[in-house]
Design a protein that fits this description.
The chain is mainly alpha-helical and 191 residues long. The protein has five helices and four strands. GO terms for molecular function: nucleic acid binding; RNA-directed DNA polymerase activity.
Amino acid sequence: MLKYGVTHRLGTAYHPQTSGQVEVSNRGLKRILERTIGENRASWSDKLDDALWAFCTAFKTPIGCTSYKLVYGKACHLPIELEHKAYWALKNGNFDLLTAGDHQRVQLNELNELRDQAYVNSLIYKEKTKRIHDSKIKDRVFNVGDRVLLFNSRLKIFSSKLKTRWIGHSPLPKYSLMAPLSYVKTTGQTL
């Protein structure tokens, strides 16, 4: 690896099911399919191409454009428009290689600028949604001796969808912001 200048880094395995963006995309596709197939659920595979077309050409608020435009750098044309535009493009086409090369470089630069702008738009959208979420959070003050619910983080490891991860009301002990807490159950057992 040193010969080719590759540095070895450890990372987690690629698992698209846990990616938030994949989940959002799959949910959007599922919603489109549910609305188009209606009662006949067996025909979902026939409608998948249309659902993907609709999903790719729909405006996405977080990025500020359609995903089609983000990939190809231009607006998507419906199939009926392609038939007429193809003739127009052939009629007005420029076959000079230097001019065509310059035009392609300009288009690639515009595509990079569009992707950078989409990235900035997604950051702005995330900050906006975080601000809205944080404004709805109520500040709570807990005192020593107050009864609180204890979250059992060890249950996250096991698949226990129906099991509660909260342990009943325990009195809040003396605590420090930097030290781990130890809770005492009402039976006297330390957690």
